[in-house]
Amino acid sequence: MANMQLEATINVLQSIVGPERVSAAQADRVQHARDQSSHAGRLPDIVAWPQTTAEVSAILRHANEQRLPVTAWGAGTSLEGNPIPLFGGIVLNFQRMNKIVQVHEADFQVTAQPGVLYKDMNQQLTRYGLFFAPDPGANASMGGMIANNAAGIRTVKYGATRDNVLALQVVLANGDVLRTGSRSVKQSAGYDLTHLFVGSEGTLGIVSEATLKLAPLPEHFSAVTAAFATVNQAAEVVFNIIGAGLGPTALELIGASSVEMLNAEEGTELVVAPNLFMEFSGASEASLGEELKLVEEICRAYHCQSFQAGVGREARANLWRARHRMFEVMVRTFPGYDYLLTDVAVPISQYPALVAAANEIMTELDVNGTMVGHAGDGNLHTAIFFPPDDNRGRENAQRVNDHLVETALSLGGTSTGEHGVGLGKQKYMLKEHGEVGLNLMRQLKATLDPNNILNPGKVLAYDTNWVIIPQ
Ligand SMILES: Cc1cc2nc3c(=O)[nH]c(=O)nc-3n(C[C@H](O)[C@H](O)[C@H](O)COP(=O)(O)OP(=O)(O)OC[C@H]3O[C@@H](n4cnc5c(N)ncnc54)[C@H](O)[C@@H]3O)c2cc1C
After folding, report:
1. Residue 377: what pLDDT?
2. Distance from the CA of 78 to the center of ligand 1, in angstroms?
3. Per the CB 3.0–4.6 Å rule, which of 50, 297, 379, 426 could disulfide with 345?
């Protein structure tokens, strides 16, 4: 932004939100330049912290008139470059719009502002015996989870964020405030605008409030680990558990090298082999016990090397604490390395084929890689690490990514199960959606954001003339 325009914009933003909630300081700009991925960052010109929908609306109205890029920022934990302000401009940080507006206890619903962090929200909801189930490892904001359609270890039972959003308040690019959906769990009234915004990565509108479905906290649950000789056997067990109609609340695949890292860094004492981490919950101890018996039978039929079921809160908390720290543990194991995280997903019947393909390409290219997956919903991540100056390592990581996306698409799946398109997945969009699908998406973007001010350069920009660099 040129100096004069910068000064004028700061003045306008200060008049909207007050001087203390606008900053062009280098430290604030640096903090909003990149997410948790390895994608190169870009400094925004200005950061603002709105507190109300009216403030968001006034800022967007001004930005739209002046053709200034605006990128929403939740907690910055994305893994595909989603909130990087590629063309500078204004970053809107939602940290201060972090209230629970209302708990609709009788309906198992909550209305919340976008900046509330989901772990904080769930903490506040425990006194109602309720929780918001989609559960990414990081303490993400609700706005960021809605924008990325985040998911996690509990998606196998409760669905992704998309399945748990009932209604939204969205500020459009021109500043208009839109309300979508309703609090009814059944909705059939016209086009589904709510879910158009879920997963749109802040490119179609800015979420300023959301009404979400909650689930009751389960009373009886069990955490289970089982180790297998090969990752392919573990993948077959995943397919068989789901195919048998058993209903895990979580079913995660942890590759052998990831298990080794957890043992070293987190003090777990798991058999160093591909493991499944599972959780089951039931209405009674008896029904839970019956379900666990069937799970054990399936695991033993595939010659599991160990099977451990620990009923109770502590066993469960320990297991998921270790699982959630996996990314941190991997980063600690390869200090100073760059990394590429893959995120493909397939129908569950194809999961064994996907895992076999991942295993094969990682062995063939001999990459520093690990495998973890939200296996119960067909989602597989690999993490490939390489020194920043190792071009061959970087190329090989990209080859793994390309190969896994090709494989997932050929198996009826998707290039991204939960991290979103951001920057890294744009080049696969044509193959995944086809010309007609992609053109329709471009038309939707052009209708909702004709001046391309909202998070420009994301989702649809690759290899097209689509990016209009704002003046
Ligand atoms: C250790 C670790 C583990 C993770 N595990 C998982 C996992 O299991 N599953 C998973 O899905 N993800 C996972 N993630 C990725 C990340 O947590 C999710 O993508 C999450 O949705 C990002 O939320 P955020 O609040 O950090 O959003 P940000 O990264 O700040 O932003 C994400 C996107 O949302 C947009 N946005 C933010 N707020 C709004 C708003 N109010 N309105 C419109 N757009 C908005 C941004 O512009 C950006 O495009 C993990 C990340 C880490 C670091």
Report:
1. 95
2. 4
3. 379
